[in-house]
Amino acid sequence: MIKRIGILTSGGDAPGMNAAIRAAVLTAAANNIDVIGFHHGFNGLLDNEYQTLLPQHVQHIIQYGGTILKSARCKALYTSEGAAKAAKALEALQLDAVIIIGGDGSFRGALSIAEHYNGQIIGVPGTIDNDVDGTDYTIGFATAIDTALDAIDKIRDTADAFERIFLIELMGRHSGYITLSAGIAAGAEQIICPEFAAIKPDNLKDLIIPIQHAQLLRGKSSYIIVVAENSYPAGTTALAEALSEALGIECRACILGHIQRGGRPVGADRILATKLGAYAVEQLIAGAHLMMAGEVNQQLSLYPLAKTGDKTKQIDPYLVRWQQYIASD
Amino acid sequence: MIKRIGILTSGGDAPGMNAAIRAAVLTAAANNIDVIGFHHGFNGLLDNEYQTLLPQHVQHIIQYGGTILKSARCKALYTSEGAAKAAKALEALQLDAVIIIGGDGSFRGALSIAEHYNGQIIGVPGTIDNDVDGTDYTIGFATAIDTALDAIDKIRDTADAFERIFLIELMGRHSGYITLSAGIAAGAEQIICPEFAAIKPDNLKDLIIPIQHAQLLRGKSSYIIVVAENSYPAGTTALAEALSEALGIECRACILGHIQRGGRPVGADRILATKLGAYAVEQLIAGAHLMMAGEVNQQLSLYPLAKTGDKTKQIDPYLVRWQQYIASD
Amino acid sequence: MIKRIGILTSGGDAPGMNAAIRAAVLTAAANNIDVIGFHHGFNGLLDNEYQTLLPQHVQHIIQYGGTILKSARCKALYTSEGAAKAAKALEALQLDAVIIIGGDGSFRGALSIAEHYNGQIIGVPGTIDNDVDGTDYTIGFATAIDTALDAIDKIRDTADAFERIFLIELMGRHSGYITLSAGIAAGAEQIICPEFAAIKPDNLKDLIIPIQHAQLLRGKSSYIIVVAENSYPAGTTALAEALSEALGIECRACILGHIQRGGRPVGADRILATKLGAYAVEQLIAGAHLMMAGEVNQQLSLYPLAKTGDKTKQIDPYLVRWQQYIASD
Amino acid sequence: MIKRIGILTSGGDAPGMNAAIRAAVLTAAANNIDVIGFHHGFNGLLDNEYQTLLPQHVQHIIQYGGTILKSARCKALYTSEGAAKAAKALEALQLDAVIIIGGDGSFRGALSIAEHYNGQIIGVPGTIDNDVDGTDYTIGFATAIDTALDAIDKIRDTADAFERIFLIELMGRHSGYITLSAGIAAGAEQIICPEFAAIKPDNLKDLIIPIQHAQLLRGKSSYIIVVAENSYPAGTTALAEALSEALGIECRACILGHIQRGGRPVGADRILATKLGAYAVEQLIAGAHLMMAGEVNQQLSLYPLAKTGDKTKQIDPYLVRWQQYIASD
């Protein structure tokens, strides 16, 4: 029987992490389970930094970005000693289970700890990148799209006013979820992301021909290319320079950066986080171990933590086709 | 073979309708299909108000609320004469098919026209209320949630500062989708919507006991009750007055109203609208008739227009349970 | 010499109050002055609810609406006994001075206390209504305008889509600052506020003629009238009904309500609050008493607390003229 | 007597330019003056690209960023031939006067034209940078502050979650208005702008000591430095790298870029733009020539165009002092 659980947020922070913490704490309280929150991700385990989490500690945090527990990356966990030390900390606090909110990298850390720990471990997918198998969406993804979209809409204003070409680089590590979604939603003229054919210095014409076509045939007053980070070998600024030279028109690069991680979570992220945080506690009570709480086709479901990083989830093929054959025709 | 289609927006406007129009026009153009846009919903058919829609007419409209085609309700269509006249207008313009963007009321209008019209008819679900069967979400719903949420977050600030009780009335006609989603996302202390047990003057204690419980046990500094319109016989303002009297604490009502229909559509609505607008054209080409283009479990799919108003879709039972047993414990 | 001061927020909360508290606390700390924050406005004085405020207590509060000290109205202060008791509380805590953040009603409360208190009292104007003499702008006014504007822009979307007339009621107690500013900024077709000629049931034609004129001559697709609260005897909803009947067109009323008090303060409010909070402490050190810290023509300056409610400040005559003779021509 | 005027937007676009165009067109119409709008700044004069502007052309543009007339920089104007050609175009269209909306660079262009043109010329200050003498604020400045602030608040979330140091570069060409205002409003721990002592590779310790001090003494969980563009010789990214190395803590740079130019204008910009656009027309009627319409101490007033680039306006000394001695203590 579960009497006492730990919870922590790990890796890049994502809007909605606080909503997940709140839901887990309220659900635990309703089931008479005590909750300990560790600070700074796994570092809190290693450094004994933690606090009791009661319902009053999570009042009115649902609307805030970041994470009240702080987050961090934790290199020490990648050694067997580190993992063993973390497991020991969990047992010293008599924790029957622990909830890890983060991405697949954090879940790998959790699996290392599991080798030394007798309690249950469950993951909750929290990352703006959406690159976690076993759930249609990760906590933070919806907010990151809207943050990116808001920025692109603003740049559209100035691009239209100036009849200029802008390249806007979005986050996503090695996946194109944010870029494809924000690009479609912004009506971007072109989208470049890792899942599409790579753009290299020697095939710039694949980018250039549609630009020339659009200006000739459709009288476009602005032209926006959204680019996932890590899409062009020398970086997006270099790509903008190469394009400027090839086209003879000024192309400007905007690197959107860390604003995509913060901000008030949108409704979709708060709701997903609430469901996953609550479901994680309920599934721990039901005995789940080494699983991730996810939502697939509107249904809450479990997925093996060990498979969350397999990268089998695909970006939406309908949107890919729409963008490549219709929108940028 | 489809050579020429009509398109119109009908009923209450919803953020994302412009994105659906744009996607339909671009997809039609890519398939060498001409598009005629009718103004003011079905009235444009009856009054011969329309315009040609080329790709340049839909540039940079994806980010705007409202609808460039205008919308309206149309009583004339509810007579057989009206429907016959509308059908005649479609045929006079040699339209092979027509796309109706609206809710189930608008789809009933489309079905009346179909009795007199030889072309194909397809629906696209556009309403903030989400009360249309055959699609998980309607265009505009996601934006309406975030608009409501933004307002509730603001009222939370002042409720917290003043330690007051607020009742916030949200839209939804006779369904609780917006209210449940926005209420969960806002961390509302109570949620009242048509799908829950009705609140009547003689069972106010069901509302009151949790308020007293929360103040005694949990030291809540504010208390927010979100209420779907049409939930209390005499209206939300009367409910606030009844509560004030019963509790001896000032309870204020806020009727959020029409701001929920407008505003820049969020990413989720723009993406859904883009997919449904494009898919509607593709399915017309494939022969679809008297169907609605929807998305169920991440898959685009068709659903009979005649069944879209059956009200078999349910609000999320997990969220209902969470709210009733956990959040307001 | 000032060693120890109190601070409180009183009356309706306003975005930026937290920024003023933060600036006062940081400025006091830099001058080796201790700060006590009272909770719930003057009630905290009477009920002995307060806390020490150190710089770490005001970290990262500048971006939040509401007030960390809570606010309230306090009827007990309006009796001589209440004021004497409050003064006693200040002296029991050995406070050399107290900062009151609020509107002119709160300043009257402060003046009552002053009759029994030997320390210094300074006011900081915090109210969304901007109806305080001695400062061009009050803390919260700029944010309230933008909140109202955001709502009106959203309603414009739906008004345009439906070609409807909307009446939008804004706050302001008995002044038209918010209404005039938001109305001008929204491009409202008409503005009704206490400073303009009153609209009564028997002169509705003054409203109606411009509407008919606009529709005939200028093909307006929507018509928005912003109305300050307390402008029409029977209320804005009744006014909308009267207009609907007179025009034969549906006119809808939206009562914007309390969302205007909350939300993240905009830059202008955070900057003004920072300056006034800091300046209040500096002026206490310099010996100020029974004054309000304000900003007039970009210059920080003091103004007698006793005159802050004289209502000599005027709404912008240029904007009034523009609206009445040009915008609604 | 003025019968016919031209209007154009020039240089970097700024939110509120559309509001200024609208106000000028409505005011002109009320005075029976025709208006011609040139496209792409001065290029529209040289290339004969223009349109008639009637009140219906400026309906519902007040809420949009960018400029419906498009903007551009125009090198051709810097030659005497270019200026003469522009003047000829104005006279060929029988324009009695022309309104130039832009910054001091655009006003220099206007002065060159004046050498060849018999009509009147008036300027309206539109630039986010606020670096124009003769007006307290330029159109677009208030919106740019809030856009920057929104981004900094988002980065604060992630900086807090990660306990990291961020350097955020804001626009402003060679002035620190945006940076100082946004930095104060965001509660930035440090502000670097051209008006402050320069930061160079050999005096990095001036930056570093306060960081170390804050972490030791005040337990700051995040540290944000806002940096005006052009403040560090090798750029903000290089500065972040230098800091990272010196501190042994990861410091990240965010270059906010062009999102600062776009977006819905905030209320303050719409109101200022409305007043200046209207006032410019009224002053042309009154005979003004080679003047800029500005607002100083809440009063509309004229200022010689030739002096608008003198850079005598200062950033707020009170805020400078506050930041340097109090906020970053």
UniProtKB/TrEMBL annotation, chains A, B, C, D:
Coiled coil: none annotated. Pathway: Carbohydrate degradation; glycolysis; D-glyceraldehyde 3-phosphate and glycerone phosphate from D-glucose: step 3/4. It catalyses: beta-D-fructose 6-phosphate + ATP = beta-D-fructose 1,6-bisphosphate + ADP + H(+). Its EC number is 2.7.1.11. It is found in: Cytoplasm. It is an enzyme of class 2 (transferase). This is 6-phosphofructokinase. Its main location: cytoplasm. InterPro entries: ATP_PFK, ATP_PFK_prok-type, Phosphofructokinase_CS, Phosphofructokinase_dom, PKF_sf. Belongs to the phosphofructokinase type A (PFKA) family. The keyword Ribonucleoprotein does not apply. PANTHER family: ATP-DEPENDENT 6-PHOSPHOFRUCTOKINASE, PHOSPHOFRUCTOKINASE. Keywords: Allosteric enzyme, ATP-binding, Cytoplasm, Glycolysis, Kinase, Magnesium, Metal-binding, Nucleotide-binding, Transferase. Pfam families: PFK.
